[in-house]
UniProtKB/TrEMBL annotation:
One of its GO terms (molecular function) is ceramide 1-phosphate transfer activity. This is Glycolipid transfer protein. Residues 26-170 form the Glycolipid transfer protein domain. GO terms for cellular component: cytosol; membrane. InterPro entries: GLTP_sf, Glycolipid_transfer_prot_dom. Signal peptide: none annotated.
Length: 205
């Protein structure tokens, strides 16, 4: 795993964006299949984000088992609202609920979007931990327990260098830029759309 991963993510979400541009919404099953690639980012970053990988992987497996046949993302979330399960966090007692797990996995996508966007900044030669801290703060930090936040803050100093990280994903500074720009360009409107659905339906997660 590693070589070609970034281009695979780009291709998957370019397909999602194309569907969004054409229909005005995102098919839930297609979106979940694209999201399958996202937890790997935490493997590449190392053990400091092991909690995030575990959490996202569990929620992804729930989504994979419950996404097909549910229509679009908006339709699935609206169905949860109508059934009063949009805030359900226990996937065992509320197996049909997709809103909360989908939101958490989408936050993982936002982490990747922010991480790559920060790394692509003109003149940015910061250590990877600087970009990772910004991405963490803007995506998944807000819903974590205080102890986990402190552990991540301390663990950021154990992250690999930029070059080591890029090597792990099968890239160099030169080869990564193209697919990274594609990932950011494709995922930004998708994220805006999905988060917009939660806002439109008055769901605060």
């Amino acid at each position: 795993m590693g070589e070609g991963w970034l281009a695979e993510v780009a291709e998957a979400f370019e397909g999602i964006k194309a569907g969004l541009d054409e229909t005005g919404d995102v098919d839930l099953g297609d979106y979940v299949r694209a999201l399958e690639r996202i937890p790997s980012i935490f493997d590449f970053l190392g053990s400091v984000f092991v909690f995030a990988k575990k959490d996202l992987s569990e929620k992804f497996e729930h989504l994979k088992a419950n996404a097909d046949g549910r229509g679009t993302v908006r339709e699935a979330i609206r169905a949860d609202v109508e059934a009063g399960r949009e805030l359900a966090g226990n996937t065992k007692t509320s197996p049909e609920a997709v809103s909360r797990p989908l939101h958490r996995v989408t936050n993982g996508l936002k982490f990747l979007n922010l991480l790559l966007g920060d790394m692509l900044r003109e003149g940015n030669d910061d250590h990877l931990r600087v970009s990772a801290k910004r991405a963490f703060s803007g995506s998944i930090e807000y819903y974590l327990a205080w102890a986990v936040k402190k552990a991540v803050a301390a663990g950021l100093y154990l992250l690999p260098s930029r070059d080591a990280f890029l090597t792990r994903i099968g890239e160099t500074e030169e080869t990564a830029r193209g697919p990274a720009e594609r990932v950011v360009a494709a995922t930004t409107p998708v994220l805006d759309h999905v988060y917009g659905i939660y806002a439109d339906l008055g769901i605060d997660l």
